[in-house]
Specification:
Blueprint (H helix, E strand, L loop, with lengths): L1 H23 L18 H17 L2 H34 L3 H19 L1
Helix pairs in contact: 1-2, 3-4
């Protein structure tokens, strides 16, 4: 019970800042890169993330909400691991094209193993 609350709270706190950084890169609408002049925080991102969290909390029962949070955390860890592998081995992959198929097979096996193992 406490894990679900802590994960949700951490996500809600971090989400506006993530949206701010992604909007500064131009991948989200510009409204998310505006900071509130008084508090210097991404206010629109905070309202949006809080609204989405409130809608999910109001529409889902606790079992479904905790499963959704757990699946979301699993996706984040799996895809972060994949990206780290790609960044780590990108020089090797660019040096020789014969490693690409092995790398994709390893990444696919890693992702399937994470999801099946859970």
């Amino acid at each position: 019970v406490l894990n679900c609350w802590a994960s949700s709270f951490a996500s809600i706190v971090a989400q506006p800042r993530l949206m701010y950084a992604i909007a500064k890169d131009g991948l989200l609408p510009p409204m998310f890169k505006n900071l509130d002049p008084r508090t210097k925080t991404p206010l629109k991102g905070t309202i949006f993330a809080g609204g989405v969290a409130a809608i999910f909390a109001g529409c889902l029962d606790f079992a479904n909400l905790s499963m959704t949070v757990s699946c979301g955390i699993l996706f984040v860890y799996v895809f972060t691991g994949i990206i780290i592998l790609r960044i780590r081995y990108l020089p090797t992959l660019c040096a020789s094209s014969r490693y690409w198929s092995g790398f994709h097979a390893a990444v696919f096996s890693y992702a399937v193993g994470c999801f099946v193992g859970s």
